[in-house]
Amino acid sequence: MDPGKYACRGLAAELADEWVLYCKALALRSPNRSAGAVRSFAAYTDSWLAEQAGAPERKLVRLNGGTVDLTEIIFAWEHDLRGTYPPPSKVGYELVTNLLALIAQRHARTGDLPARLAARAQAPPLFGKPADGPRLDEFSQAERLALRNAARRDIRILEARLAEGQELLRAGRDPRQGGWESVPNLVWAAHSTMLDTAHLRDHLPGSPGRWPAEILEVAAGAPVRLAPQALLGGLAAKVFPREIDLQPFRVLLLLAMSECTPEELLDLTLDDVEFTDGGVRLSQTKHRAGRVRRRLHTSPTPADDSGGNHVFAGEGRWDVPGLLRRLITITDPVRHAYPAAGEWLWAVVEPAGQGRARVAGRRCHFVLDGRRFTDWISQPREGTPALQITRPHDVRRLRKTAKISRVVALGGAVADLAGDDHHVEVFRRHYAHGTTAHVLAGRAVTSAQRKVFASLTRPVFADDAAVEDLGEAAVAEALGLDVATAQAMEEGRLDMGLVNCRDPYASPHTERGQVCHVAPAMCMLCRNAVVFPSHLPRLVLLAEHIERMRDRLPPPQWQAVWGRQAAALAQLFDECAEWMPKARRAAEEGQARLDLPLGMRTEYHR
Questions:
Q1: pLDDT: is 443 or 29 the higher one?
Q2: What number of CA atoms fall less than 13 Å from residue 45's CA on the CB side?
Q3: Residue 155: in which H helix or E strand, if any?
Q4: 497 dihedral zone (left: phi>0; alpha: psi -120 to 50; beta)
Q5: Most CB atoms closer than 10 Å: which of 243, 395, 492, 589?
Q6: What is the number of other CB atoms lying within 10 angstroms of the CB of residue 521?
Q7: Which band of pLDDT confidence, cut at 50, 70 and 90, is reported for residue 409?
């Protein structure tokens, strides 16, 4: 930052010094909002002073000792940011909090700030932090498979293109001796890092229309003005990967590694990748947490190390070790040709500069237009339909998809699913809200409820053979009855008017020791109910009565009063299907009579 660019250069210099100290104190290794806050506030202070104060006073703007009250400027700046970054943007809020943090640091360090400015630094921003937008959901199973298949197809195409480029490279030679209108020679020049657009303009015909057909094909039909740069990029792409070419590796690795964030994956260097006989061990650095984790990803079979150096073997597998070997094989020429690219795992070569552009090697960032995740999804692919992927095309959804796949595979409680990768609360807030996780949780809860309700409300059915031998101890025990109760049922002493009851004094609907007073209204929802085949005609009449109630009651009321009994009857009739034709005939012929209390026929009609 150059404070001399601002009229309030003294204030800008003081804030910049605090920014440097702040970064050192927190050991920040990446850009942050503090720098933007200093620049934004210094620029606004210039415009504010131009309207409110004279030129002599402009030089007296300081954190301490100035003639202008910075508190007023801060308030005005906050209002301006509110209009520039309206909700749901958090940029304005973050700029203000970072500026106040720098001022508070200065006061804590020196204690020489005016009381009003120090108090403002300790107070919260004028506007609260905007609420988070809609949470990102995982990709559906169909989308996950589409992304996986497209990524695999693109990797095969990339490897074939680079193999073809190597053949061109072996056939080419220095174009200064072999000629400039040969694609192999131009590929040789691009690989040797000597080629730039100035050479192409000087040695190729001035009009791209007069270029040889094979050279025009490499330029991919770019406009005349951009043809040299497009040709340069196409030649380099024959032997080096572009940034968009590495997106498929990123997609497949994030889908395969649920414990790796996109930032950790992008920050990997060759030193962080250690191949073993059983797979690959990654050293993942999570800067926000200040922590380094080492993860072992195994292969289905041990890698072949007979050559003595299997790091660049380029195995054609789709697991994590195989993908990393293929990625290293593809990016290794970049590191050899351009040492400035360092030892980054994600290294590419692309044209850089305007006018006299030349290719340069650098690390990937996947943030520039044409190179992002959404650009890879939207790019046309020959012979295949366009990918139909729901928006937003956010790479973080890949990680959530991998997390949810782990949920589906492992199941269990949130504490088990969080593992050692997250705190339980972090997993619950950021990953457990996925649609698939909610569906699975709902199914688990519903299944558990059904089992509980079935154990509490399921009547016992005794077929004809069981009824004939009801007095025998083995049959009674199989039905969950003692011999005395079974004999009483056989004699009809426990018939409650609809079905039998094994213990009228132990109803789940009344206090224990009191006779059940809800029979027969709740008999089909009672675990004490025992149904004989002779009861089925009555139950058929009850089912018809319930259906008549459906026509008389509003749907919510019918569901509350009769819904569970109707479901219980339907389940019982399905289980007793072989007895139902006879029971329905008996009900139609009037061989059975349904005696219901008056309240069951009239009370619910009102």
A1: 443
A2: 30
A3: helix 141-171
A4: left
A5: 243
A6: 16
A7: low
Res. 197 pLDDT band, cuts 50 70 90: confident
Site of tokens 């109803």: 507
Residues 145 and 221 grouped into a single domain: yes
Tokens of 104: 């508070």
Structure tokens at 160: 């074939």
Q: How many domains are there within the chain?
A: 4
Task: Please list the alpha-helical segments (H only) found in 462-597.
Answer: 464-468, 473-478, 483-490, 536-552, 555-558, 564-575, 580-588
Q: Does residue 215 share a domain with residue 171?
A: yes
CA within 13 Å, CB half, 412: 11
Q: Are residues 14 and 70 in the same domain?
A: yes
The secondary structure of 162-211 as a DSSP string is HHHHHHHHHH---HHHH-SS-HHHHHHHHHTT--BHHHHHHHS-SSGGGS
Same domain, 234 and 361: yes
Tell me the residue range of the domain where 553 lies.
Answer: 458-462+498-605
3-state secondary structure of 247: helix
Show the tokens assigned to 412. Answer: 């269990």
- The pLDDT-based confidence of 175 (bands split at 50, 70, 90) is confident
399 vs 394: CA distance, rounded Å: 10
Instruction: Quote the tokens at residue 456.
Output: 């509490």
Cβ atoms 95, 52 nearer than 8 A: no
Same domain, 181 and 261: yes
CB–CB of 352/360 below 8 Å?
yes
